[in-house]
């Protein structure tokens, strides 16, 4: 491949950097992750040329949009210089953002995708890029659960730091404005702690939507519990600590309501995947009624309930009603 100028070289470098994590040697069980080891058996190695071709195709599709919307964009170094087509990038941990970085009551919308406990070790994966582009990684500030010797962060610290971040979000976001939160986990206990943190910081749950994504090998290997696609949750910033939800409904009754809601969704939409059942109404029902905690005392996942009442269709990785 011949590069005509520096811009072409930059594009090629971008393409190469964007496939590093996809080009690693892995095994069939972790093909959707970024392991930093070479497996002893069941190795999977992807064709780099095919990866580059797909990236080039995607880049060409996005070219007109990029030129139209970002050709005059630039990065500024402080909040006061922000205006249309300008961006401010903060590289510190979100828990350390101050009023000097972003003034309180100055943000109209927050869109965030918090780390999922120990599922993705972001900074450890970023070590792959340092030899190529000198991009350093930040193990100290990252909010994840990790047994790595340099940080050894457990669940309680993870949730404590998340609380600091959402408190900061509450202060920066204008009252009655929205925060859009991407989050997925099949573990009900994790949902209980997340919602508790958000409500204690004044974020009132409004609604949830499911966003479909292409299936991965991980989804195929553990399809019942792998939450393919994204869930986006909408919260209103009330600026007031919300009261803890209480309910006199029993776990058995809550389970029955979950069954009825899932049955209604299957009758309406046909066969559905686990994440679709989570996102199309059931989690919303549990959050709004304050049923999450009580249900989590008996069940680790909604899958435990689905298995009681519905048929798992392996070929299409969907739940279906009994005939």
Helicity, as a percent range: 25-40%
What is the radius of gyration?
22 Å
Q: How does the major sheet shape up?
A: 4 strands, mixed
State the end-to-end CA separation.
58 Å
Give the structural class.
alpha/beta
The number of helical elements comes to 11
Shape type: globular
Query: What proportion of the residues form beta strands (DSSP E)?
Result: 15-25%
**pLDDT under 50 segments (min length 5)?**
215-221
Helix-strand blueprint:
Blueprint: H1 6-18, E1 26-27, E2 43-44, H2 48-70, E3 74-76, E4 86-88, E5 107-112, H3 122-126, H4 130-133, H5 155-172, E6 173-182, H6 188-200, E7 203-211, H7 217-221, E8 230-237, H8 251-269, H9 274-288, H10 292-296, H11 303-309, E9 311-313, E10 318-320
Parallel strand pairs: 3-4, 5-6
Antiparallel strand pairs: 1-2, 6-8, 7-8, 9-10
Structure description:
It is a single chain. Helix 5 (155-172) packs parallel to helix 6 and helix 8 (251-269) crosses helix 9. It contains 11 helices and 10 strands. It has helices at 6-18, 48-70, 122-126, 130-133, 155-172, 188-200, 217-221, 251-269, 274-288, 292-296, 303-309, and strands at 26-27, 43-44, 74-76, 86-88, 107-112, 173-182, 203-211, 230-237, 311-313, 318-320. The chain is globular and about 60 Å long. It has a domain at 1-61. A hairpin with a 4-residue loop joins strand 9 and strand 10 (318-320). It is α/β, with parallel strands linked by helices.
